[in-house]
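Example: Nuclease SbcCD subunit D.
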Amino acid sequence: MRILHTSDWHLGRSFHRVNLLDAQRDFIGHLVRTVRDERVDVVLVAGDVYDRAVPPLGAVALFDEALHRLADLGVPTVMISGNHDSSRRLGVGAGLLDRAGIHLRTDPAGCATPVVLTDAHGDVAFYGLPYLEPALVREQLGAERAGHTAVLEAAMARVRADLAARPAGTRSVVLAHAFVTGGTTSDSERDITVGGVAQVPAAVFDGVDYAALGHLHGCQTITERVRYSGSPLAYSFSETDHRKSMWLIDLDAAGAVTAERLDCPVPRPLARIRGRLDDLLQDPQHARHEDAWVEATLTDPHRPDEPMARLAARFPHVLSLVLDPERTPQDPLASYARRLRDRTDQEIAEDFVAHVRDGLGPDDAEREILTGALDHVRLAAAGEEAGTR
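Written out as structure tokens, the predicted fold is:
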């Protein structure tokens, strides 16, 4: 069976001040042509269809267009909700859409009810695991502990139980939206940390032939059977070096996986440039970036006059300006920036406690209080977006 694995469309998202709806429409057209030209048997969309729980009307219209074009091809599509989606809103009409070959899986209770498709070698069961917010689904799934690993383990236990009851030789594919250990992040992914831990081991997906993952925006291979397709477009300058693509997966009669990367259209290249303003404006090496979307980091010791206007004279598509003045190692601001770099919210909060108490950091009980407070804030935001409040 030939499978096209995509994820993280983020319909309705902008890139800094640039509306990406036309670029997203171009991707949908590319997706449809790929399905037709490559004779794809099933399309997978592993979450984050929309960029936010209440998407703008233009994004909804594009989603509607995408569903009609995929349905017109007569090729089934299996789609799950991600942490950016409202599972309730995305899942409206799922029963009716099933009849058109569009299979929306947004309810955790249905994670062990697969979409079963058949090829010349027998059945393939596609299990859709929507984004599982631990605090919201733990009891529903009967997870023994809190946290991403526990709820995914509980969901996968249900998947394996259903699969075990099916005819011998039934092949299996799981769609999931999660942060799997070994994956590489970018700045455009929303944090899903719970209790300081967001990652789950790839072994959670043992027992199925292929795990089609969403959430991380870089296309990557965790194992031969566990892969991220990544987002079809770049949504932050941290993705400057990404090769945006989809996975074309061939699943043979025995469940062996063959994978090929298919490139997605690039609306405009990205570039990150760094240096003093005058150097950036004069250096001939930057000529290749004059038609790119540019993030410029200025290292001038003092902020230059009208830096964006001057940069735009050479780089008309400059979108982001970062000021990072050259500092001596003794500069207290340089030391502060180094301390914060790559630190989690939990680590920063614990460092603050130690700072105000003359080096005495939080004990275990205080650390648990900090963790609970941070989780409460993050969970409240997640609950509002999911429509649970």
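The mean pLDDT is 90.
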